[in-house]
Every structure is written in C-alpha cells, then in structure tokens.
Input
Amino acid sequence: MNAIKFLLAAYVATWVIHGAYLGTLVRRFARLRRELRELGEKQVDQRKYDGPVRQRTPLR
Amino acid sequence: MKRLFPILSVVTAILLAYALYLALAVAPTDALQGDVYRIIYYHVPSAWTAFLLFFINFIASVQYLVSKKPSARAITKWIVIVIGVGGAIATFLPPVRAQIPAGMEPSAVATTVLALPAFYFVIGWLFAGDRLDVLAVTTAEVGVVFCTIVLVTGPIWARPVWGIWWATGDIRLTSTLVLWLIYVSYLVLRRFSNSAQTQMMAAALAVFGALDVPLVYLSIWFFRTQHPQPVIGGGGSMDPKMLRVLEFSWLAFLCFAFLVCWSRFRLELLRREVEQAHAMESLAGAADSAKASLPLSRSAP
Output
C-alpha cells in the first residue's frame, strides 16, 4: 500500500484550504480599506466644494 | 494588542512546525495502517477545533438572541446554571451513569456539561451587543473551514484503509456532512439576506444547527459505524506517545484557529464600519437633495 502519497495529499490539502481562506481574508481586508479610504476622500472633496464653514455668532 | 498579533503569529508558526515534525518523525508508525494513520494528526485536531468553534457560535447566538430582552437574559442565565450544575451532579447518579457508554468517564461528561455555563458567562462578559453577532459569524466561518478539512482529509485516509472514499449511510460521516451543510447555509443566509431580521434568523439557525454537534461526537459511542470507534478517552487504546503528539497538534491548531478568528473578527468590524459609512453618506446625499428641492420661499436665508 503506497500510503505516503495519501498522507502527503491530506497534509497538502489542509494547508491549501487554510491558505485559500487566508487569501480571501487578505483580499476582503484590502477591499474594505480601499472603500473606507475612498469614502474619506469623498468627504474631503465634498467639504472643499461646500466651502469653509461660516463662524456662528455666539448667543447673547 | 497590535503588537501581540505578530508575536502570537510567530509562536503559532513554531508550534505548527513542531507539531508537523512530531507527527511525521516522532510519532511511532501504526502496526496495522502504516504511515497513512498520521493523517489523524490533522484530521482529529481539525474536527475538535470545528466542534469548539461551533459551540462558541452556539453560545454567542443564544446570548445575542436573549440580549434584546432583559427578562429573557435573566431566565436564560438561570437555565444555563441549572443545566451546568445539575447536569454535572446528575452524571454521578447511578441511573444516569448507567446510560453513559462504556469507556466514557462520568467526570469527562461532567466537565463537558460544566463548560456550558463557563463559556456562557465568559463570552457574555467579554462580548456585548452586536459584538456577540460578530463573534457568531466569525466562529461559524472559521468552523466551516476546519470542518471542510475534516471532510477532505477523512476520505483521503479512508481510500487506502477502507478501500472506499466514503461509507454511504455511516452515521458519523453523514452527520458531519449535515453539520457542514447547516453552517454553510448559515453563512449563505448571512451573505445574501438583506432583511433587518437576518442576524436574528441566523442566530436561531445556529442554535438548531449546534444540536448536530453532540450527535456527530456521540455517534461513534452509540452506533456501530464504519468510522473508527473512539481511540482516546476511557474506551481508547491509543499509544501514549501517539496521544501526546495528537494533543500537541491540537494545541497548535487551536492557536492557529484563534489567530484566524481574531483576523476575521477585525474584518467583520471593519465591514460594519464601512457599511455604516456608506449609510451615512447615503443619508447625507438624501438630505442634500431634499434641501435642493425645497421651494425658494421656504429655504433658509
């Protein structure tokens, strides 16, 4: 019985599955960080477009 | 906390490498199966880790379900205490002891039953509100990954030992597959449902799904299966050297699972933050368009 190839296959399969899952985590992290950055940039652009916020006169 | 992650990653990598060395070079070869039995050092720790993660998912889901109502929270707290303490005492009573399968120690059953209140209160203390739901989705997803490994490595071991990839009708194999399908459907529900009730529905599904875990675990104790009978615990006949390697391998996989859960937890928090930011932006956009569409006479000076 050539069992070594089955043993190797099981160990490799385990790390391929873990590797693939970790890959999806990294990709999802990158996508969310990019989205968050883009949202931040959009808000900065919006503020520039609206102009400086007028100073309120203090209530007497 | 940010510095702890890389340190723990290095420690886990060392543990996993050492576990691999122990599994391949130190553990003795099985007299009947030869080297292929060494698959057990990945298959069994993955199964135990998956069970533990599904158990945490169950506790987090129950906590999340009752968290909305203080009265339900108080009742559940007492139910958990009664199940834990009462169950632990009951395992030592002769009528209950007679029902425990041969080879299973009552003290082991009592410890497992006591784990229920212990996990319930620790999780309730560490996580609150929506973080319970974040914990539930994290443990379900990582648990599915570990369960997938169990379902892949099992047939790879079975082919040379049994001569078949899958024993159709075997209760251990079938219940494990059902367990995997339940948690995959849980993740699919969370991924594709946009209802405001999704979190509640997912938590309810998780509570029922977790009922399959004891069935999977106990199936080899109560039924005759193609799957090997218990090799550890009271009924086991495993060589102590093999057992030590198996335990070390589980420790390494537990550390790895903890790290993966940590990352997935942070990812879920980030995802919710982005979702909230999108919602705020949409609200701001809607407010701007409402302001622009107001008649001039009613607009602010």
User: Anything to note?
Assistant: Chain A touches chain B through 25 residues (CB under 8 Å). Residues 5 and 35 of chain A are 44 Å apart (CA to CA). Helices of chain A lie at 4-50.
